[in-house]
Amino acid sequence: MGKKTALGIVFDQLQTVPPVATADLQGKTVVVIGANTGLGFEAAKHFARMNAGRVILACRSKEKGEAAVARLKEDTGYMKAELWIIDLSKFSSVKAFADRYEKEGGRLDILVENAATMPATDDNGDALLTEDGWETSFQVNNLALSLLAILLLPRMIQTAKAHSTNPRLVVVASEVHFFTTLQPAVVNSTNPLKTFGSKEYCTTSVLGSRYFDTKLMNVFFTRALSDRLGKSPVIVNCVNPGFCRSELRRDLFGVKLALVWAIEKLIARTTEQGSRQLVWAAVGGEEDLDKLRGEYISLQEVHEPSDYALGEEGKVLQERLWENLIGELFTVDPRVKSIVQQLTSSS
Fold it and tell me: What is the pTM of this model?
């Protein structure tokens, strides 16, 4: 019922992970963000085994992306994987990816937005900002993914109409969103996102819960976007892959690294097991798609997100954050506002 304790997470972690969901993806196009390693790579392999028409591995590094495409071909025998470059720390790269898709991407049936990075600091302990002026993990985990989703939505709507299908947008969130709420300094700000993403706000204490906060933002974004899509053929949901062995810990050091390493040894899922959650969110639940709209998925079932997200305070904040987000992204790409207006008027 919207609550999750640390003991509850441990209990979930020890549950048997259901087998991977399958579907016939012949002729369909799947895009997986962050597909060169971990959850994204394992999910891409599953989609390849479903004989997708195309699987686009969207990666930041050309070298690592090419190696991932080669590994995918070797592991699955699938020959229609493609590497497309996207760097979520640069809005210009996100826009270039969307522009390329508009020109040569064709249909878009599944978009898996799998990206997460931990906050980082410079030698003085100050939060690292992107060239766009935002705290790095916030831009990567939230702003860039939101921008990409909105810019690609028209293509997903077009795909639905042309092929009588239900494209899906899957945002990778996390159960850690249960353990955080946004601070009054953010909630009461005239521009919550600017405050949240600023160097001044991002003290060492704030950065300590930043990853949790960005995953809560993923939940808010999913629910807000789904509300505006209404009964659109596009299904938007967010998914908890569970605690998995991953490269996220490459950004940790000291006590935190030792703690995460120990927990991984005790209860972590493999990245392949975690990827099954992403795949289910993308192809599962076909018997009642409406039940997936805007929902939070864990262990291949629909679950309630946190009480904070569901409560009145969370609902009000969700709407404020959405309006704030569209305003900020409009300054990055003016297409954002017209796309959202069109979606709202047609839902």
Answer: 0.93
Does 296 participate in catalysis according to the annotation?
no
List, in order, residues 6 or more apart from 313 with CB less than 8 Å away: none
Q: Which CATH number fits the domain that encloses residue 182?
A: 3.40.50.720
Strand 168-172 and strand 81-85: pairing?
unpaired
Is the distance from CB of 29 to CB of 106 less than 8 angstroms?
yes
pLDDT tens figures, 301-320: 999 999 999 999 999 999 99
Residue 1 covered by a domain: no
List helix spans (H) across the chain. Answer: 6-13, 38-49, 62-76, 91-104, 136-138, 144-163, 184-187, 192-196, 204-208, 210-229, 254-267, 271-283, 307-310, 312-332, 335-346
**For the chain, how many structural domains are there in total?**
1
306/198 Cα distance (integer angstroms): 26
Query: 213 near 116, Cβ under 8 Å?
Result: no
List 78, 101, 201, 211, catalytic entry: 211
Residue 188 lies in a domain: yes
**Is 208 part of any domain?**
yes
In this structure, the chain runs to a length of 347
Average pLDDT over residues 70-89: 98
Q: CA 278 to CA 298: how far, in whole Å?
A: 9
- Residue 42 within a domain: yes
